[in-house]
């Protein structure tokens, strides 16, 4: 699930819980050109002088370091700004550090408005930058650094842009304004009301009304006066240049879900949504048993996929010059009326002894809901009245890039990405190449996310090709290059590359041996990296294009750096189920001896989110689990952490292998993992346990229920028990919806397989979990009780949401997991 990844939230006051451990990290650099690094034989794990304890691991993580977050470049490319926040603190502090400075300077509260902002818009000459701070508009003159505040109000402004003539436009609610730079005049360009237009002065229609007007002169006079006033008002609106434009009335059945103004200020694109749709449950709550007033608080919750029916969006263009509304039709989208679920519906109908007859009908469409980007799905050409949208069908089978005929209200399909499973909610960046009529975009059509460019109405041209994943694309300031991140040399090693748009030449710019994120400096000469290795948490680095890498921050505590952490080795487990290689992290026990007579017990950790990569060479977001796995090795366990099918970073087929069949391919991969450990690490395959949270908890359920001889014990944390109760945006991608595809839900939901439980199971959930509801565990527990299963136990955490926050809860949870493994596997 998307929100299962825990925020590292680490921080710096290194309480020396690991003090006295003077050994250095055992991390070994991985050559980027060595994709087969760390295959068997496996390296001997480091020896430790002080054993880890659960109290140390699950303590407030601030002892590890207060790390830089959300780092970005200053406008002059000479410094970096970022935030730091202790994990237990509700507040964050902001810093700025010069690229040649040894330490950062904390920004005072009264200076934050003047700090360079990460998100802003530039005028056409790139001499001025406008941005929002605390809901107000500021403008910075880049050559001098002078900052001017243009608004000071309590009601927050929603967005701002420069117009082609140098004026600033902004929108607030459903109102759009223009600030004329020469006059200082604030003009309301559009007032949009989601209501029916006033009916105006009505003529009498009934017999009685007509008689009243005919016989009573006063009534007739009032009618004529009203008509005269209305006519005068209309004429004044047309003639008086000092008045704001007339109000737009768009009906009372919808709300504006997104608004975008063209660069010349002439057009507004609106995405409208049914006003009755909220995405929240209409009849359910999450009870907070520990409310501040001593009573039970009924907390509203999201809708379940079984009851959520996203309505799609309707698109409208407003021509402000002609005061003309143009509704956009969807017929121009290739496949807009295809019955893409025909085979699924036919299979489900056959299971019920029925026949399904396929028919064509318009599908529900909406702006692309990418889960990771910061850009908009609405992209205007920088100098012409041309508009491109990225759209998706709510059935998750199609993504379109469409150009828009603004005068006629028609879409033209520039690119269609169809997937019989589901279109990825990542890798959807796109935009116009400056000074051209060409679009660049990411697409998984080859099986891997790659970069393409195409002119309007022309065939696309691939700028990258291969069995690797391209992401995080950025245009260079001169528009000569597109920069991107890719795992080209190894699925678990990421570096920054760029492609020359004129020649098509690709080049790798960094030689990192772990994982990273990056941003290009405003002047296009440097890269800012937020990079990590397996035993080294994220720090900031700066690298000039073609130059040497320089570390900028060092917030990892000495206590953490000086402990001899075992770097998990990344291995490729051969699949016996036709999946190729399953990449996994492996931790070996202290004093490991492959030939010793007594075999080792083992544990497999199942990462959350499903679509997440954890078996890479970067520092894991599961930092507590990383330390727990080190503890387990000190207690004699082998530990494996697999990127089972459905995980991120391995291409489209790996991602969609679980379509309509969640929990089955993944368990096959876990079987191969157990077998691999038995062959390569001297593991007793009859003494293996498993655990994981969220999607990992779901896999723990499915493993113990559908493969009861695979593991001897399992711990399911915050687990999904029934996919019909999870949210629509995630679940409908993979399983469609329960009304359309009940077969997929019954096949994939653990509660349907619980009769298979024969081994000890520990179920642990937070009562305040608004992601995977506590009710999931409640229903599972009652079902297991009714099945008369004696081998399960439960633990609840009354104050915890999906990602636990209290160190005491983490400690209690992992004490129970450790106790389970010690009892059942030793």
TrEMBL record:
Q: Which domain of life is it from?
A: Bacteria
In terms of Pfam families, this protein maps to: DPPIV_N, Peptidase_S9
Q: What keywords are assigned to this protein? A: Signal
Tell me what organism the protein belongs to.
Shewanella vaxholmensis
Write down the SUPFAM superfamilies for this protein, in alphabetical order: alpha/beta-Hydrolases, DPP6 N-terminal domain-like
Protein name in UniProt: Prolyl oligopeptidase family serine peptidase
Q: Which residues form a coiled coil?
A: none
Q: Which residues does UniProt assign to the signal peptide?
A: 1-22
Keyword field contains Lipoprotein: no
Q: Does the keyword Signal apply?
A: yes
Residue span, Dipeptidylpeptidase IV N-terminal domain:
377-537
Task: Show where the Peptidase S9 prolyl oligopeptidase catalytic domain sits.
Answer: 630-825
């Amino acid at each position: 699930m998307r929100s299962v990844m825990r925020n590292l939230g680490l921080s710096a006051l290194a309480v020396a819980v690991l003090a006295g451990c003077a050994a250095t990290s055992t991390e070994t650099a991985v050559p980027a050109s060595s994709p087969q690094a760390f295959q068997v034989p496996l390296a001997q794990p480091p020896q430790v002088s002080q054993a880890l304890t659960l109290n140390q691991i699950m303590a407030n993580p601030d002892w590890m370091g207060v790390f830089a977050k959300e780092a970005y470049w200053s406008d002059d490319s000479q410094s970096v700004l970022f935030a730091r926040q202790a994990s237990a603190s509700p507040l964050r502090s902001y810093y700025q550090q010069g690229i040649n400075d040894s330490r950062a300077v904390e920004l005072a509260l009264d200076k934050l408005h003047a700090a360079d902002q990460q998100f802003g818009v530039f005028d056409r000459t790139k001499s001025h930058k406008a941005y929002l701070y605390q809901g107000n508009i500021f403008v910075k003159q880049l050559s001098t650094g002078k900052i001017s505040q243009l608004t000071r109000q309590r009601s927050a402004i929603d967005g701002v842009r420069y117009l082609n003539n140098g004026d600033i436009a902004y929108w607030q609610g459903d109102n759009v304004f223009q600030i004329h730079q020469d006059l200082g005049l604030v003009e309301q360009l559009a007032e949009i009301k989601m209501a029916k237009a006033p009916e105006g002065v009505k003529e009498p229609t009934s017999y009685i009304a007509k008689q009243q007007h005919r016989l009573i002169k006063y009534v007739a006079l009032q009618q004529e006066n009203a008509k005269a006033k209305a006519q005068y008002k209309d004429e004044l609106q047309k003639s008086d240049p000092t008045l704001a434009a007339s109000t737009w009335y768009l009906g009372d059945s919808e709300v504006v879900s997104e608004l975008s103004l063209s660069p010349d200020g002439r057009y507004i694109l609106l995405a409208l949504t049914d006003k009755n749709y909220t995405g929240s449950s209409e009849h359910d709550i999450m009870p907070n048993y520990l409310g501040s007033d001593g009573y039970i608080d009924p907390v509203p919750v999201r809708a379940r996929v079984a009851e959520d029916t996203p309505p799609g969006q309707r698109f409208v263009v407003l021509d402000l010059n002609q005061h003309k509304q143009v509704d956009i039709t969807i017929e121009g989208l290739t496949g807009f009326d295809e019955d893409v679920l025909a085979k699924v519906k036919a299979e489900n109908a056959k299971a019920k002894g029925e026949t399904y007859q396929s028919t064509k009908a318009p599908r529900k469409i909406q702006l692309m809901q990418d889960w990771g980007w910061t850009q908009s799905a609405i992209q205007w050409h920088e100098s012409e009245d041309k508009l491109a949208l990225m759209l998706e069908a709510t059935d998750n089978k199609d993504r379109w890039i469409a150009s828009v005929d603004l005068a006629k209200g028609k879409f033209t399909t520039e690119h269609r990405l169809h997937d019989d499973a589901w279109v990825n909610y990542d890798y959807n960046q796109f935009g116009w190449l400056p000074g051209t009529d060409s679009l660049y975009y990411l697409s998984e059509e080859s099986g891997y996310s790659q970069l393409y460019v195409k002119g309007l109405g022309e065939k696309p041209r691939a700028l990258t090709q291969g069995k690797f994943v391209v992401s995080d694309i950025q245009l260079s300031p001169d528009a000569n290059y597109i920069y991107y991140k890719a795992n080209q040399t190894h699925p678990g090693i990421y570096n920054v590359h760029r492609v020359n748009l004129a020649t098509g030449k690709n080049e790798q710019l960094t030689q990192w041996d772990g994982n990273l994120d990056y941003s290009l400096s405003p002047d296009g000469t440097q890269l800012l990296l937020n990079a990590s290795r397996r035993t080294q948490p994220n720090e900031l680095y700066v690298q000039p294009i073609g130059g040497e890498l320089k570390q900028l921050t060092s917030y990892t505590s000495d206590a953490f750096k000086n402990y001899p952490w075992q770097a998990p080795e990344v291995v490729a487990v051969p699949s016996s189920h036709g999946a190729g290689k399953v990449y996994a992290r492996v931790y070996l026990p202290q004093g490991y001896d492959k030939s010793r007579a007594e075999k080792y017990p083992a544990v497999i950790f199942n990462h959350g989110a499903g679509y997440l990569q954890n078996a890479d060479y970067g520092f894991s977001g599961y930092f507590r689990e990383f330390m727990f796995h080190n503890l387990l090795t000190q207690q004699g366990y082998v530990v494996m952490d697999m990127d089972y099918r459905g995980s991120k970073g391995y291409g489209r087929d790996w991602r969609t292998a679980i379509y309509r069949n969640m929990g089955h391919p993944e368990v096959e991969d876990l079987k191969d993992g157990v077998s691999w450990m038995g062959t390569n690490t001297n593991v007793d395959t009859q003494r293996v346990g498993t655990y994981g949270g969220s999607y990992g908890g779901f896999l723990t359920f499915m493993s113990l229920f559908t493969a009861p001889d695979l593991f001897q014990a399992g711990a399911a944390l915050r687990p999904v028990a029934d996919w019909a109760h999870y949210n629509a945006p995630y679940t409908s991608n993979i399983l469609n919806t329960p009304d359309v595809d009940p077969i997929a839900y019954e096949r994939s939901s653990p509660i349907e397989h619980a009769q298979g439980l024969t081994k000890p199971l520990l179920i642990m959930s937070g009562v305040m979990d608004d992601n995977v509801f506590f009710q999931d565990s409640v229903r599972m527990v009652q079902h297991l009780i009714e099945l008369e299963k004696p081998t399960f136990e439960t633990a609840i955490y009354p104050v915890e949401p999906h990602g636990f926050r209290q160190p005491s809860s983490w400690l209690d949870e992992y004490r129970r997991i450790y106790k389970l493994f010690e009892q059942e596997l030793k």
